Amino acid sequence: MNAPTPPIRSTDRAEGASTPEAATPDAATFLDRLFADGVLMPSGVDGLYGRSGAFEEVIEGFERLVERFARADGAIKVHFPPAMPRVNMEKSGYLKSFPQLAGAIHSFVGNDADHCRLIEALTEGRDWSDLQSPTDVVLTPAACYPLYPAVAARGPLPEAGALFDLKSYCFRHEPSKEPTRMQFFRMRENVCLGSSEQVRAFRERWLERGPEMIRSLGLPCELDVANDPFFGRGGKLMARNQRDQQLKFELLVPVNDGAEPTACLSFNYHQDHFGALWGLTRADGERAHSACVGFGLERIALALFRHHGTDTATWPAAVRAVLWG
């Protein structure tokens, strides 16, 4: 079993990269510029924005780039809705590890009298949330979460394992004025299920591909060991163990003014965690391991607007060629 690739620390500017404007201590400066130039549209809630046509075209171009690799690898394309069964989130342990990020969907299930109370509360400007009850669905926190129980229900994996190309809108409750920290965002993931050797080889391939892909877009990047934002005192130990075992790497790109670089890609080895959780087995009956590479689509688009400007027509020809041919 090969050891994970060590962190690649390279902040050399890729060929075709433009120089971003001087950083300022005001984290909202870049967001204000995105609003002023019509790239994003405010909603009145931090982290909840409309996207312009130009923004969507950038994401579509990047997704075509990802799809070329996924198709060549033989990945099965599956897209899930931005919600999943509540029981699956409960079983997954997400609420134990990340309660601060989870979002549940509530709805009105009352009678006529309750409806009258709801209207009265709205009319008087009072809180009406006590008249809503949890539904059977929650907001999807990561594109891969609905995949594991769905695949497990189909029986053992083929001997060669399985590779999937996923996409979903995701939700995480962390309102912020940093444009890269949206509450609703799109995540593209390639997920590999199989033996430890198969999934680690998959992650190794993407640890090489990821930086090359981002540098082809004229963006500086740095690959480093990372950890998930586990909650509470116990979470600190889990984060330390995750880093010590090098189970998670992130590809960091400078985006926000005066802030640390932003994680735009993540490379995760779950060991047999989801295999044990959902009863995912290989053809030989052993538990399946899993690994994934995740692409934060909004973050990658924002990095491009940050480094190349808000008018895509002026972007370097090499970058435009990668995105749109």
UniProtKB/TrEMBL annotation:
Its EC number is 6.2.1.n2. Keywords: Ligase. Residues 1-23 are annotated as: Disordered. One of its GO terms (molecular function) is ligase activity. It comes from Siculibacillus lacustris. This is Amino acid--[acyl-carrier-protein] ligase. It is an enzyme of class 6 (ligase). The keyword Ligase applies.
